[in-house]
């Protein structure tokens, strides 16, 4: 009993903290069911406007196409960047040399350059290639990120190199070692990287806004931006769109939650 | 991950880029802006489906009466996204991606024309009669006597007040018409004392209110040559003084965000607002307050040369791009936004888009009583106010000037000396201009 009481302050602290983190989510869900005036009135109870908000949102905006585009971009970016960055991270660690360390250092320096500085040359590049309004142009500049390469390189440090030696003696090709031994072993790192990449790609805003000029290729964040651009904003509809846009990242995170935590802390099972 | 999953994983990894590049080919093949190829389609960038885009669609219908093959391709683009797009296109010199027509905030017009002249085509004065627009409005899109835009929605400022609250304190809307700021403050304090309700609200750190007061005296943050005049600017000092008094007396409630600002009058915690006439769209969202509002002009500054009861905030104009089918775009704008009472009659009741085009104001639709505003023909009044708004210089660094003044106001409200804070603001703007 006393032990429980001693824990009480901790629980109170955690509960308050949890309340603060969960409240915005709760407000988003509840507001999606309320009218604009109710949202402005900070109504905290579920309302009856959900269907009306749905109808308005789908009448005003091409939500399906935006969802599909966002999905293609997020999945495409995730698959390609996991493949590319894990190969790079693996290479930097397993085929280690001083020259490669120097290359990695340069890559890390590239993390310091803000995207806004490279956006205009990048736009020129894609415009010359005739790729304005293409999903390819959204995906390609984001698939190789120094952060993911570093994540994979650090994770590879804890990958036992003896396994690689043993596989080589057994006659497994280098590609085979990577695809059949390394990849399955590192699945928690892949999961963590997948969650991060998917979320970043799904929420990416500035670059898609610039390169995707026509609205038939717009993504969910762009659609949401349009919903709040008018003189009068329908907050119920806006909250519903935000809710719809948040669902995929929530699902991905919940599904990969355990592996994500393990991957970030660098555990190998 | 077993071997099968692995295979699928690799297969998807290979197939997806292929699929996407095919998709890319099809969408990249879509047509961009016209460019005089005999095709009667114009591409337009604009925001707000209930307002600007609705107006475009109605204009399209009107133009189609004489041009059956005419079509508009409207790309909904929020203003906050439109500006970075224009900047990117201008800096990468990819003008081929521009639409035929784009909508531009009036306050940003000068800056864009001066910084990126190659984005624009001139709007010929032969096709569009600019004398049919208020001088102050046409001035936003005029640089060196050349017009680059056709004015659309009016940013004419209004004072909207809750008549029921005024009544409780023993006032009517007439007591707030053609008055000075000191009268407004005295009466506002009285209303607050008797009813507990402040009259105004706004975003803390926003300079909207100050800029409206400033323009009401025809003053600006820049002189005619574009040099900043933030220091020793009597109108600015008077405006800041009024703002400080409003906040300190509790008549003006400062909130943290735009959404909160809208919330203050929609949920009735303040009894009025001063803003561009487009704010009417948000006011009428509070259906339970129907019949309880009235609209009048702004209070004016005392002891400042050129002070009036009229001002503006916001509003936007149509620009014709350098990549446009200029003849078609000009003819379309001249026949609709600068020449069709029918258009303005259609869009006013549904969207509340008040015309800057003076002939539209004579229409019966503008004179119709508005039930939400207790039967007042508010739009006819707004058009009358619009003709009285003094012109002011916006210039290439208008936004830098506004930002610097906003920062100064935050300091002044925190107790800093106004002269010092404004001197710093001036230095910051001069630094940005170097």
Automatic annotation (TrEMBL), chain B:
It holds the Pfam family SBP_bac_8. Keywords: Signal. InterPro entries: Bact_solute-bd_prot1, SBP. Residues 1-26 form the signal peptide. Coiled coil: none annotated. It comes from the Bacteria. This is Extracellular solute-binding protein.
């Amino acid at each position: 009993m006393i032990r429980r009481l001693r824990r009480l302050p901790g629980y109170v602290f955690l509960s308050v903290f949890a309340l603060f983190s969960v409240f915005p989510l709760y407000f988003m869900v509840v507001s999606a069911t309320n009218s604009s005036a109710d949202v402005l009135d900070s109504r905290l109870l579920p309302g009856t406007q959900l269907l009306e908000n749905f109808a308005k949102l789908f009448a005003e905006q091409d939500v399906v196409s935006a969802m599909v585009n966002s999905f293609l971009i997020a999945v495409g970016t995730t698959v390609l960047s996991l493949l590319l960055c894990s190969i790079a991270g693996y290479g930097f660690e397993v085929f280690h040399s001083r020259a490669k360390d120097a290359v990695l250092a340069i890559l890390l320096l590239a993390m310091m350059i803000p995207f806004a500085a490279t956006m205009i040359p990048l736009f020129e590049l894609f415009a010359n290639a005739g790729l304005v309004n293409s999903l390819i142009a959204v995906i390609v500049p984001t698939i190789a990120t120094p952060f993911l390469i570093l994540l994979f390189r650090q994770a590879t440090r804890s990958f036992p190199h003896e396994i690689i030696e043993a596989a080589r003696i057994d006659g497994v090709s280098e590609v085979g070692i990577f695809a059949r031994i390394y990849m399955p072993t590192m699945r928690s790192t892949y999961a963590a990287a997948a969650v991060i990449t998917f979320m970043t790609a799904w929420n990416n805003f500035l670059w898609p806004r610039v390169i995707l000029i026509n609205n038939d290729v717009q993504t969910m964040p762009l659609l949401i931006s349009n919903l709040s651009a008018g003189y009068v904003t329908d907050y119920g509809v806006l909250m519903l769109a935000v809710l719809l846009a948040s669902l995929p990242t929530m699902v991905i995170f919940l599904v990969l939650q355990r592996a994500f935590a393990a991957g970030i802390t660098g555990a190998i099972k | 991950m077993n071997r099968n999953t692995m295979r699928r994983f690799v297969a998807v990894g290979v197939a997806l880029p292929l699929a996407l590049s095919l998709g890319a080919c099809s969408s990249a093949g879509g047509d961009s802006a016209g460019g005089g190829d005999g095709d009667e389609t114009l591409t337009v960038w604009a925001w707000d489906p209930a307002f600007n885009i609705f107006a475009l669609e109605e204009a399209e219908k009107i133009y189609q009466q004489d041009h059956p093959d005419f079509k508009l391709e409207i790309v909904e683009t929020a203003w906050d996204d439109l500006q970075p797009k224009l900047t990117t296109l201008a800096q990468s010199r990819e003008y081929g991606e521009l639409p035929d027509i784009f909508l531009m905030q009036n306050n940003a017009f000068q800056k864009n024309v001066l910084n990126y002249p190659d984005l624009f085509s001139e709007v010929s004065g032969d096709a569009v009669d600019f004398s049919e627009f208020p001088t102050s409005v046409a001035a936003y899109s005029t640089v060196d006597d050349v017009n680059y835009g056709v004015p659309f929605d009016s940013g004419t400022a209004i004072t909207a007040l809750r008549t029921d609250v005024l009544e409780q304190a023993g006032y009517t809307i007439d007591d707030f018409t053609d008055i000075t700021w000191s009268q407004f403050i005295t009466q506002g304090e009285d209303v607050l004392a008797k009813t507990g309700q402040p009259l105004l609200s706004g975003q803390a750190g926003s300079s909207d209110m100050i800029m409206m007061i400033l323009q009401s005296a025809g003053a600006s943050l820049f002189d005619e040559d574009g040099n900043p005049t933030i220091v020793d600017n009597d109108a600015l000092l008077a405006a800041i003084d009024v703002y400080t008094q409003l906040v300190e007396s509790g008549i003006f409630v400062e909130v943290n965000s735009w959404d909160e600002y809208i919330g203050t009058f929609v949920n009735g915690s303040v009894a009025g607002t001063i803003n561009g006439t487009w704010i009417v769209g948000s006011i009428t969202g509070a259906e339970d307050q129907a019949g309880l509002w009235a609209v009048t002009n702004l209070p004016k500054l005392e002891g400042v040369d050129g002070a009036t009861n009229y001002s503006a905030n916001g509003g936007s104009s149509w620009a014709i791009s350098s990549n446009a089918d200029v003849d078609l775009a000009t003819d379309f704008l001249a026949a609709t936004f600068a020449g069709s009472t029918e258009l303005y009659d259609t869009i006013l009741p549904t969207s509340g888009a008040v015309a800057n085009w003076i002939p539209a104001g004579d229409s019966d639709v503008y004179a119709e009583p508005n039930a939400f505003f207790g039967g007042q023909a508010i739009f006819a009044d707004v058009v009358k106010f619009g003709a009285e708004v003094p012109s002011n210089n916006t210039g290439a660094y208008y936004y830098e000037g506004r930002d610097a003044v906003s920062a100064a106001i935050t300091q002044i409200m925190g107790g800093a000396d106004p002269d010092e804070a404004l001197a710093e603001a001036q230095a910051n703007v001069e630094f940005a201009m170097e």
